[in-house]
Write a structure and sequence with these properties.
The protein is α/β, with parallel strands linked by helices. The chain folds into two domains: 199 residues, Survival protein SurE-like phosphatase/nucleotidase (Stationary-phase Survival Protein Sure Homolog, Chain: A, 3-Layer(aba) Sandwich); 35 residues, no CATH class. Helices cover 25% and strands 27% of the residues. It is built from eight helices and eleven strands. A nine-stranded mixed β-sheet has the order 3-4-2-1-5-6-7-11-8, sandwiched between helices. The chain is globular and about 60 Å long. 35% of the residues are buried.
Length: 275
Amino acid sequence: MKTKPSILVVNDDGITATGIKALIEVMSEIGNVTVVAPDGPQSGMGHAITIGKPLRFDKVDLYPPIEMYKCSGTPVDCVKLAVNKVFKGKKPDLCVSGINHGLNNSINVIYSGTMSAAVEGAIEKIPSIGFSMDDFAQDADFSHCKKYIKQITKQVLANGLPEGTLLNVNFPKGDQIKGIKICRQANAKWAEDFDERQDPYRRPYYWLTGVFENYDKGEDTDVWALDHGYASVVPVQFDLTAHHAIQILNTWDFGGSASADQPKKIASADGTNLG
């Protein structure tokens, strides 16, 4: 009899969020699930880790018989604790994060606690996927996403992912998803503003607000796919090297440095000569 895969489930909205419950339900149909999630909301934490104070890590019986733990730290802390204290160095077969209440498409991937947890899984050489949906409501309905989450998860388990790569999956709101599109990250950003208010002592405080601005007119982006009713799947990597810029920088004059006299050949991770 084939052994079921071990699956680590994490999120950034907190262990009681509706999104992680939906993800647990899907993963329970596929493998043996272990949940390690923050004890409260941790949205927008990016790849932050806790180093200035101790972490609390407690077992909870929220959805028996699922093995579940709550953590006082960030989503990335959750993955680190799971690998070291739950799996004790024996890596799970898969790490899934989400389902996030709100999109993590385009530049949002940089700020996302959901995606950073998945990135941490990939850093640990665990095949990893982040799932998000365009609905911030606490009682959001994720049911229409489940069959696609199951399909994508099974494909990752069957085929694996290239080393250093993970998937960023986003779903539009509503039950009329047209299908799945493999995409690139759109060139977009938030035009931020700060809503200034005053406390009872007349001291100013600020709420971050903003408008999402899409500069990308391509039809192969995650923003386009979501706007047209498709689930977007973007392969993401944590190697932040701008490989295309290395040849350009090798033409710079650094004042007679060794690199200027004898330019060093630099290769990308796949061995390609970059100059």
